[in-house]
Design a protein that fits this description.
The structure is a homotetramer. Chain A is α/β, with parallel strands linked by helices. The first copy, chain A, is built from seven helices and twelve strands. Chain A has one domain: PAC-like subunit (Rossmann fold, 3-Layer(aba) Sandwich), CATH 3.40.50.10900. Helices cover about 35% and strands about 25% of the residues of chain A.
Chain lengths: ~260, ~260, ~260, ~260
Amino acid sequence: MKETVINLLNEVELTEPIFIEALPGIGHVGKLVAEHIIHELEATKFAELYSPSFPPQVFVGEKGIIEPMKNEFYYLKSAGEDKKDYIILIGNTQGLSAEGQYNICGAILDFVEKYGVKNIYTLGGLGTGQQVDKVQVLGAATSEELADMLEENNVKMRSADGGIIGASGLILGLAISRGIDGVCLMGETPGYFIDADASKAVLIALTKILNLEVDVAKLEERAEETRKMISKAQQMEQDMVDRSHIAPGEEDLRYIG
Amino acid sequence: MKETVINLLNEVELTEPIFIEALPGIGHVGKLVAEHIIHELEATKFAELYSPSFPPQVFVGEKGIIEPMKNEFYYLKSAGEDKKDYIILIGNTQGLSAEGQYNICGAILDFVEKYGVKNIYTLGGLGTGQQVDKVQVLGAATSEELADMLEENNVKMRSADGGIIGASGLILGLAISRGIDGVCLMGETPGYFIDADASKAVLIALTKILNLEVDVAKLEERAEETRKMISKAQQMEQDMVDRSHIAPGEEDLRYIG
Amino acid sequence: MKETVINLLNEVELTEPIFIEALPGIGHVGKLVAEHIIHELEATKFAELYSPSFPPQVFVGEKGIIEPMKNEFYYLKSAGEDKKDYIILIGNTQGLSAEGQYNICGAILDFVEKYGVKNIYTLGGLGTGQQVDKVQVLGAATSEELADMLEENNVKMRSADGGIIGASGLILGLAISRGIDGVCLMGETPGYFIDADASKAVLIALTKILNLEVDVAKLEERAEETRKMISKAQQMEQDMVDRSHIAPGEEDLRYIG
Amino acid sequence: MKETVINLLNEVELTEPIFIEALPGIGHVGKLVAEHIIHELEATKFAELYSPSFPPQVFVGEKGIIEPMKNEFYYLKSAGEDKKDYIILIGNTQGLSAEGQYNICGAILDFVEKYGVKNIYTLGGLGTGQQVDKVQVLGAATSEELADMLEENNVKMRSADGGIIGASGLILGLAISRGIDGVCLMGETPGYFIDADASKAVLIALTKILNLEVDVAKLEERAEETRKMISKAQQMEQDMVDRSHIAPGEEDLRYIG
């Protein structure tokens, strides 16, 4: 595999769909929100993206079944009060290198643009590095109109204070020159674990803006489960970090004829 | 050299060969297993793979003879009770970059697919970061049928607990979309040294599954030798790490006109 | 986006313009100088450069408005006593990888060469790692004639003492083989914060050499504001660093199915 | 610049020249040897190599004159008792990435192969990480014949103890598949500074093997000068390291709108 490829699973016609990006990032905040929406509103998967710029690995899922690294496109038709169409992007990874990220995010925009996307929501976490008592949802936008819209929905705009790293930022950055507008919603999170509280706050903000009705209580349940998993998760994360210290390259240095 | 190349040394006809991948990784567990099988069953080398994504270096072997970085394909015909054909891949390195790994693993699959490979076994170590009293062999698989098969052979499936990094994972991940199934067998290992105990456990599990008869005692001997070499090896590893601290790029910063 | 692209905003005719490069670097010394000149002399933006080798992110500006990573070309016609034309390059980033930097700096030279550029000034900071009492402006040049010219203008030439890393160095290095001459002016700076003192010193040296009249007092004001922002800035930098510890790749290792 | 390029400065005819590679590495051991030979035997520069895989920077030489990153080919005709021709490669840098090193070393071999090179000597240092009382020159070779030849010349062959990282290793590794033989001579060096003692030892070994007469005393003088420069050099290295901590990418994270 030398190029990023998107495999279309089902032909689908959508009308100016809203594109929601929620690839994994800090606290897996956006990913949890999007997975919850996909589950609750019964979105349908219609395409998969694979890239040689993804990490060179696989994940081991339930029962030891191997999951390749991939991004997945889902769609919703006539959802919520506004009867809007949606494309939702989730996945288990993002690109590794700068060039890889540009390549993948460009391919994603090429793909969704064909369906007539005019509006993008990217979801993520904003790492605070410390405990978060009451999660605030912060916003950034490609235009002042969208910034005003966010503030009307009680999303506090971030001030000139740094960047949005990864797909949630880059997709919006690349969208600008294509004449596509969008916003990024970021839930404050310590960033150390899978943060369902931050996800819940982002979910509430997003569904309010989009006039979508999604049962938040179920995310509470999911949050509870997630919290129980945290100590186990943290142990596993530590294991992964330990293991990952031996990258293939370094490992080579251990070679004995 | 700008592309990964595979040089065919001998034309060979194989019937739906089983592909065993054992490139160097944690504890060199898979590599030891495959080298032992190649030696005991007298497999024949028939192709070599070179790549510009390998580390830019060579190894110094016995008597100071230089070995280029390469991967090597061996074959076995009508081996074991089941009279099956095999392709076995070993080597002294893996690709360095993500894109390089995807490129190399893709080339490997292109190559073995031409021989009719339908089933893959990748072998590796699972770093525990601590002493291992009794080596357990853990498995992962691309399908539930294979997961069941592994469990019937007393291989414990890993649960959703992280990833398989490098060629042992990526080859299976890329195989899925080609309709090729496979499993990964991982021997628990502290990961600090060349681990013949973990290799022995993987060898026993693998040969049981494949109905191959391979003298394990000889691996014991090899293990013994390896253990004697460990203190020397550890010293050399330390040297390598020390030396590798001065990468070409950093070195440049030391330039004086 | 797979290639570096330069979007021309306005057609403009220039006569042997002097090219000033001031992309962000240590202490943002060059960037402050160029932004000040652009503001004071009312330079006009006429082109933008985007590259897949820029960091895969965006910046959040005032009021939460998203700024893509980009470099911007401005021009001045008949400026200063010498009535010279200028092209000035600023931006919010530089390329990440070595190959990316070569690619971008080559594209920049291709672009400005078409306007007849024969002379380049690159501006930057020279990190001292300690407090700087009186800022010295140090120079480097592609020819002895230019070195003499700098010394006549009281710029002290650096002696054989290391390198100039990034666009300020590479653009001059690549210019040599195109038969284009140039110099680099570097203001000594601790390198820990946005350094208006170093910028002021470089501004004075540059405008003296080029016979440009630019109100330095205004940079003083800007310096004062910048100094007030420093404690806030340092806090934010710390936040960014904390946040950036979780790169997409590492983050993936936290995945739980 | 998107590709490695070699600019030919003079047409030259050579008869089966011996190729000596001495790009900068640990202790600049090989580089000092080759520069000394070039100076003493008055070799002529005939080609230059530039690459986008070199570090994106320039060096500042004497009087502040900028030197681009490059590799330089020199030739010698009918040198020494054996009246052999030589191509000698020096430079101020090596490639940064794995792919870049493969690309550059491949281009170097393509170039020298056209002159009929059949034999390669690569020169480098072998870092010991501690003080070296009496410098030993260690060897590695692509064939047993050459290994025997080295031992006859009192070069001790390295045993299976790690790798040769960078151009000195990779050029030999790539030469093998082209049917070109070669050896690597490595002088033991602490690796912390420019090591003229190690260079002297390698120079003596090399000139003995090649039947070249080169005044070693002059290298002694050069060594003396180098030793005087060491304390200054170490200070400068430290500066470089301090400065290099702020790579362009990290620097971006300090951005304030």
